[in-house]
Specification:
Enzyme class: lyase
Catalytic activity: L-homocysteine + H2O = 2-oxobutanoate + hydrogen sulfide + NH4(+) + H(+); L-methionine + H2O = methanethiol + 2-oxobutanoate + NH4(+)
Structural class: alpha/beta
InterPro entries: Cys/Met-Metab_PyrdxlP-dep_enz (IPR000277), PyrdxlP-dep_Trfase (IPR015424), PyrdxlP-dep_Trfase_major (IPR015421), PyrdxlP-dep_Trfase_small (IPR015422)
Order of helices and strands: HHEHEHEHEHEHEEHHHEEHEEHEH
Low-confidence stretches: none
Keywords: Pyridoxal phosphate, Transferase
Shape: globular
Strand content: 15-25%
Number of domains: 2
Number of strands: 12
Largest sheet: 7 strands, mixed
Cofactor: pyridoxal 5'-phosphate
């Protein structure tokens, strides 16, 4: 796919014109797990589906194109993408990570640290992170904006200092997507996504992705993925290709709605703080009285009380008992993730319906 095209064109054309034999406009589903060799010593390029599958290959080409990467791999979940990303670093590597991050990431980081595989240091702010970025750090791990406090980190500034010290930079770009941020262009070495979220966009597929332009990193990732087998299925690859086609439109609408919802929340007497980075569909807010949270969640009709994010339907999540429950309460509170915080994933509904729903629930 031509990276010189505009991003919305690349997305709309994701997966088209890939089957020269039939002329199919959209990428066909290839369910076969094995592939016939034309003759001894020859291959079609496909041997076994855990190594390579035509439908998944089409998706990976599109994923590389939207992040302006040379290579991409599609995995079975967002967490499998994170595990795969760290598989290219040796045991004992020292990782400097943002403190505010997805609870599932923290859970795995804590587990592998307990096992002695990696050592993690956490930073609350960009200033803290840059100060902690010393010669012995092997990997910097960023979410930006962070989940759920919406803190932003300057990828370019961090990558410049990291590379001067021989440190690799990994960025989870799930929240902003390539619509608002392409970390590789800012110096990151590796980008990952939970494709379950915005890239899929319809709450009907579990998937992850890794993108890089570093050939050595890619070859190691490919080898490890083929070895461990956490690849994305053909049908899920097909769903992802379908979801990508509307990503630009969905993010545009989600942002417009989120801006309206954030403005409403800032004026609500029941809300003491709104956390919104200005674009994207993710908004967090803190209520003045956390005792109202159960009733608020039970009152909402348009918002759905559920985990996850990035779909066309608006969701509300209570991180303390859902997405970030595995982070000890004292740790959460130490960096601002308090029990009065709610996280919104704003969908593509009418913004006034979303505001009316929140207004009524906050006033009950």
């Amino acid at each position: 796919m031509d990276k010189k095209l505009q991003l919305d064109t690349i997305l709309a054309h994701a997966g088209i014109k890939t089957d020269e034999a039939t002329g199919d406009l959209t990428t066909p589903l290839h369910f076969s797990t094995t592939y016939q060799h034309p003759e001894f010593g020859k291959s079609t390029g496909y041997d076994y589906t855990s190594t390579k599958n035509p439908t998944r290959s089409s998706l990976e080409k599109a994923l590389a194109a939207i992040e302006h990467a040379d290579y991409a791999l599609a995995t079975s979940s967002g967490m499998s993408a994170i595990v795969l990303a760290f598989s290219v670093f040796p045991v004992g590597s020292k990782v400097l990570a943002v403190r505010d991050l997805y609870g599932g990431s923290f859970r795995w980081f804590h587990q592998v640290e307990q096992e002695g595989r990696f050592h993690f240091t956490y930073a609350n702010t960009e200033e803290e992170l840059l100060a902690a970025l010393t010669e012995d750090i092997d990997v910097v791990y960023l979410e930006t904006p962070t989940n759920p406090l919406m803190l932003k980190f300057d990828i370019a500034a961090i990558a410049e200092k990291a590379h001067a010290k021989g440190t690799k930079v990994i960025v989870d770009n799930t929240f902003y997507t390539p619509i608002y941020q392409r970390p590789l262009e800012n110096g990151a070495d590796l980008v990952l996504h939970s494709e379950t979220k915005y890239l899929g966009g319809h709450n009907d597929v579990l998937a992850g992705a890794l993108m890089t332009s570093d050939k050595e990193i890619y070859e190691n990732l490919f080898y490890n993925l083929n070895t461990t087998g956490a690849v994305l299925s053909p049908f899920d690859s097909y769903l992802l290709l379908r979801g990508l086609k509307t990503l630009f439109l969905r993010m545009e609408r989600s942002t417009k709605n989120a801006q309206a919802v954030a403005a409403f929340l800032k004026d609500s007497p029941a809300v003491k703080e709104v956390l919104y980075p200005g674009k994207g569909g993710m908004v967090s807010f803190k209520v003045k009285d956390e005792a109202v949270i159960p009733q608020l969640l039970n009152t909402l009709k348009v918002f759905t009380f559920a985990e996850s994010l990035g779909g066309v339907e608006s969701l509300i999540t209570y991180p303390a008992t859902q997405t970030h429950a595995d982070i000890p309460a004292d740790v959460r509170k130490s960096y601002g993730l308090t029990d009065d915080l709610l996280r919104l994933s704003i969908g593509i509904e009418d913004s006034q319906d979303l505001i009316t729903d929140l207004k009524f629930a906050l006033e009950v």
